[in-house]
Amino acid sequence: xxxxxxxxxxxxxxxxxxxxxxxxxxxxxxxxxxxxxxxxxxxxxxxxxxxxxxxxxxxxxxxxxxxxxxxxxxxxxxxxxxxxxxxxxxxxxxxxxxxxxxxxxxxxxxxxxxxxxxxxxxxxxxxxxxxxxxxxxxxxxxxxxxxxxxxxxxxxxxxxxxxxxxxxxxxxxxxxxxxxxxxxxxxxxxxxxxxxxxxxxxxxxxxxxxxxxxxxxxxxxxxxxxxxxxxxxxxxxxxxxxxxxxxxxxxxxxxxxxxxxxxxxxxxxxxxxxxxxxxxxxxxxxxxxxxxxxxxxxxxx
Amino acid sequence: xxxxxxxxxxxxxxxxxxxxxxxxxxxxxxxxxxxxxxxxxxxxxxxxxxxxxxxxxxxxxxxxxxxxxxxxxxxxxxxxxxxxxxxxxxxxxxxxxxxxxxxxxxxxxxxxxxxxxxxxxxxxxxxxxxxxxxxxxxxxxxxxxxxxxxxxxxxxxxxxxxxxxxxxxxxxxxxxxxxxxxxxxxxxxxxxxxxxxxxxxxxxxxxxxxxxxxxxxxxxxxxxxxxxxxxxxxxxxxxxxxxxxxxxxxxxxxxxxxxxxxxxxxxxxxxxxxxxxxxxxxxxxxxxxxxxxxxxxxxxxxxxxxxxxxxxxxxxxx
Lengths: 301, 318
Prior knowledge:
The complex is a heterodimer.
Chain A: H1 2-29, H2 47-56, H3 63-75, H4 89-124, H5 129-143, H6 146-160, H7 172-203, H8 205-212, H9 217-246, H10 252-262, H11 265-293
Chain B: H1 8-22, H2 26-36, H3 38-60, H4 100-136, H5 138-153, H6 156-167, H7 171-174, H8 179-205, H9 209-216, H10 221-257, H11 269-276, H12 285-312
Helix pairs in contact in B: 2-12, 3-4, 3-12, 4-5, 4-8, 4-10, 5-8, 6-8, 8-10, 9-10, 10-11, 10-12, 11-12
């Protein structure tokens, strides 16, 4: 188990290297730079200024040299400065992160609060009306894209009823719509899984196996909750980008969106790598808890 | 009860009956199960209507979807307030005076292309690589697994965002108004999942007796793959394809909604939502109608996918 964990952690290094390489070359393969006259149509910059800016930010060097420089800086946690905002990437991300984290955690909590009881009830009363209703909800919630549900919700609660604000993140009432919409997908997914695991747990096989392995009751429960929450978290991480874009929340998801539109290479790299690490870690945690829960899964072949 | 004597003829008939029943193939069986599934049949009906609309778009769209008539901008749909409706625009018009009904109809075409072309690419690449990797093992398998490790580390939606945003202003990004790049990007991000699925299936199938038998009588690997392995991996592949279609459509809608998908003026539901969002708080229909279309089509495809999964593999039923 320990050996496996270490191997997986070590495997993260080449994986992240390739992710960085591909995203970096994609970003630089694109025509145009942030300082092109084209990207500032209203007030074109003189050619000499563009060249000086390119030189200042090192964009005039060959791409591989830029990449090597980027990597060597990144190892020392220096991710460069944003071209557009003229501040260190780390600082910008650090400012956006609390919003995204709050949104994500709130959504996860709301999702758990509703999906666990709903899943348990529909499993205990299989084929009842409650069961069918929650199944329908689960299908609709996982099928209809979140930005579409968001649009409907904005129309009903924001535009028509004037109940809730839908731009920004300033007051707690601004939190309600984005949190609710982001939680829907996870909620639907978790309801499905909870129902299925409850049905299985009624038969008790793997809970008994877990106990017979000598695991404490707490580990069994925590591991099972993790097994459910892990995949939902990965969905929440990417889902939050869309929600942040839709509701103009100043988190890292929106930073990512604006940075790719503004061709702000350092910020693109910074936000993308952060997402890659978050998702890799979420996947690792899921795989590890699977191993604790289900002894049939062997890590050493 | 007294013993029932059966004549040799009757026995023969019974045997024949049993034989006849056994001849019902897996596919026929699956079709019977699918037909009994109401949600799946409704979904299939909606999908059929959608396909017909897409094919007939030039004939049934009442107006040119990209023709702008600013004088007729922002007309209400026919159920809106009478003073703002215009009988020539049954579902209203957007802020540039384009007919929403016609735009919705033409959008089905793009959605259909985006649903089917990338998924066909994924099918072709995924199945061939997956079979080779699973059956032959060796370097193909090693390479596939390493590529998978890397691709799985890419959050797929983010990767699509980056590919589209970075390459859409190049020559390749302009082909077909961004459609070609969209096809390639979606296929690139998703073929690995299909290859993994097929590889796993082949790994377990190739140890089975019928493959061993085929090998024993000297069948070539190529023949084994095409004649014996392929039909047996088809069921899960079909299910995966059925779910791949709506997810490709969703990717297009999401990207277009954020303004980095298909290029205007080509109408797609995502583009319509993106453009209508400016006037959303005063005139919601240009946004709500395409959003409704997306919801209906996504639900329909999911119902079909769920139905196919239950029909092709009843054990997987939840």
